[in-house]
Design goal:
This protein has about 240 residues and is mainly β. The protein is built from no helices and 20 strands. The strands form six sheets. The chain has a six-stranded mixed β-sheet, with no helix packed on it. Strands 11, 12, 14, 15 and 20 form a five-stranded antiparallel β-sheet that branches. A three-stranded antiparallel β-sheet has the order 13-17-16, with no helix packed on it. It starts with 6 loop residues before the first strand and ends with a strand.
């Protein structure tokens, strides 16, 4: 006895394949011609009679409407609408709203229940999408207290991969003038053989915890002759920076 295998047939006789094994086409899949929809608070991408939609106008867009999960649409912008980020219903790269420009192209995936995720955004000018890289954390100028500590909330979405420190001169100190900045990416700010100087920074998903050395002069630097000199705590401020 021969068992019948159910097949999926395509209207117009393009091809057929066993059910559950995916659709096999003998030729190219030609999509419908793009349609144009005007920008509005809600633009119903799922109801469009095409996979590619030209978006006209510059009205702010907050929703792409409701569509079955898995549906994909491509939008081509003809003007400069703002697309408003929402953590659930309009998920954008970098978690920030986007101001489109004429010629920008975006691909969208429906998550169902009116929720959409942007899975690709290409700017017409070839530049990176603003906001796709989270803004680095920069602390305010912190007072240097020997033996003291700081707890700074960095506001990033995860533990930063890179943390660095800067000393900002506020009062003339030896060869250093007001406005001078000493930077070092290795967290101790300056290398020194003197004990109890420098800082240690502990990083977590939410905070940067700074501990100052207990020496009366927490930091050292090199003078104009390349000789190590102690910096006066009160002449400097510490700035901590971090990025994902």
């Amino acid at each position: 006895m021969v068992e019948a295998i159910p097949v999926v047939k395509v209207a117009g006789g393009l091809g057929e394949s066993p059910a559950g094994e995916g659709l096999q086409l003998p030729g190219p899949l030609n999509e419908a011609s793009p349609v144009t929809l005007a920008s509005a608070s809600t633009v119903d991408l799922g109801a469009a009679d095409a996979n590619t939609i030209n978006i006209s106008g510059s009205v702010t867009i907050s929703s792409w409407g409701s569509a079955r999960a898995g549906i994909r649409r491509t939008t081509v912008f003809g003007a400069a609408p703002t697309i408003t980020h929402h953590a659930t219903s309009m998920i954008l790269p970098g978690g920030a709203s986007i101001v489109a420009a004429a010629g920008d192209v975006a691909e969208w995936l429906s998550l169902g229940s009116g929720n959409w995720r942007c899975i690709d955004y290409t700017k017409a000018n070839g530049q990176a999408l603003a906001g796709s890289t989270p803004t680095p954390y920069v602390s305010t100028k912190q007072t240097i207290t020997s033996g003291g500590s700081l707890t700074l909330s960095h506001g990033l979405t995860n533990t930063p991969s890179k943390v660095w420190a800067e000393l900002h001169c506020e009062v003339i100190d030896g060869v250093y003038a007001v406005g001078d900045i000493i930077q070092n990416d290795y967290l101790t700010v300056v290398a020194t053989t003197n004990a109890d100087r420098g800082i240690v920074i502990t990083k977590t998903a939410t905070q940067l915890r700074v501990r100052f050395g207990s020496h009366a002069n927490a930091f050292m630097a090199l003078n104009g002759s390349g000789v190590s000199v102690a910096l006066t705590n009160t002449s400097w401020r510490l700035v901590i920076k971090a990025e994902l």
